[in-house]
Amino acid sequence: MKIQSNEKIETLKNNVKGQIVLPDDPNYNEVREIWNAMIDRRPAVIVQCAEADDVPHAISYARENGLEISIRGGGHNIAGSSLCDNGVVIDFSNMTTVSVDAQKRRAYVEPGATLGDFDKAVQAHGLATPVGINSTTGIAGLTLGGGFGWLTRKYGMTIDNLVSQFRCSHPVRIRALSRGT
Ligand SMILES: Cc1cc2nc3c(=O)[nH]c(=O)nc-3n(C[C@H](O)[C@H](O)[C@H](O)COP(=O)(O)OP(=O)(O)OC[C@H]3O[C@@H](n4cnc5c(N)ncnc54)[C@H](O)[C@@H]3O)c2cc1C
After folding, report:
1. How far is the CA of 7 from the centre of ligand 1 (A)?
2. Long-range CB contacts (< 8 A, 24+ apart) of 150-159?
3. Angle CA(176)–CA(179)–CA(181) in degrees, nearest 5?
4. Tens-digit pLDDT profile for residues 12-22
5. Cβ 87 under 6 angstroms from ligand 1
6. Residues 31-70, buried b or exposed e (16+ Cβ, 10 A)?
7. Mean pLDDT throughout 73-85?
8. What does each C-alpha distance from 63 to 56, 57, 109, 129 come to in angstroms?
9. Does the structure show a pLDDT above 90 at 166?
10. 181 falls in which pLDDT band (50, 70, 90)?
11. Residue 74: its pLDDT value, please?
């Protein structure tokens, strides 16, 4: 594993609002755990982002130190592509806010939100979007792979309902469950 300079790590810690988790930290093993427990990758640095502005700092740190980057949403990719060995993990698992504009039928979704976070927020308004079957899957990775679930035959794939990607809040079209629109 590459040894990180303390000074550069301290600068990264000061620059980000989220948490930096390093191999010596007591929560390191817990934070690097993903859905497929057979994956045992050991990142050099995990940046647990608290806001979108943390991301450029994580990228700059990786570039300056010649480190690979991986991105973690819900951590459900079975091959473990959200984790890299000896690199920087940009971990969105603490960014799970879903805000709903029921009138515009738009949900604004942070990249660590799970399907459960999404469904809970939109169903409070009697709305839904086709997402996957398991509530602990991350909506970001699921959408990037297309995304299919209970409502797909009627309303298409999750990606069909992605309006745009804007920084770390992705507007998603939502539908009225009861009216079938
Ligand atoms: C138990 C289980 C049930 C499932 N059920 C379904 C289902 O019903 N329907 C379905 O369509 N799929 C299903 N899947 C597959 C799932 O959609 C994919 O594994 C998906 O990649 C998981 O996304 P994630 O965010 O949880 O995972 P992650 O492993 O965190 O991310 C998956 C990939 O997307 C990348 N990524 C994540 N977030 C971002 C981002 N913000 N920007 C750029 N890249 C990003 C990651 O780097 C990684 O390569 C299921 C998987 C499991 C394990």
Report:
1. 34
2. 154/130, 154/180, 155/129, 155/130, 156/130, 157/130, 158/129, 158/130, 158/131, 158/132
3. 65
4. 999 999 999 99
5. no
6. bbebbeeebebebbbbbbbeeeebbebbeebbeebebebb
7. 97
8. 10, 10, 28, 37
9. no
10. very low
11. 97
* Tokens coding 94: 């603490």
Asked if 80 and 37 touch (Cβ cutoff 8 Å), the reply is: no
Q: CB–CB of 122/107 below 8 Å?
A: yes
Residue in 26, 12, 22, 6 with CA at minimum distance from that of residue 54: 12
Q: Six-digit token pair at 124? A: 């409070």
| CA 33 – ligand 1 centroid, Å | 15
Model pTM score: 0.92
Strands (E), the chain: 19-21, 45-48, 69-72, 88-91, 98-101, 106-109, 127-128, 170-173, 175-176
Work out which ligand 1 atom sits closest to the CA atom of 168: 41
CA of 5 to the centre of ligand 1 (A): 33
Note the pLDDT tens digit of each residue in 95-138.
Answer: 999 999 999 999 999 999 999 999 999 999 999 999 999 999 99
CB 155 within 8 A of CB 129: yes
DSSP 2: P
Q: Which domains occur in the chain, in start order?
A: 6-91 (3.30.43.10), 98-176 (3.30.465.10)
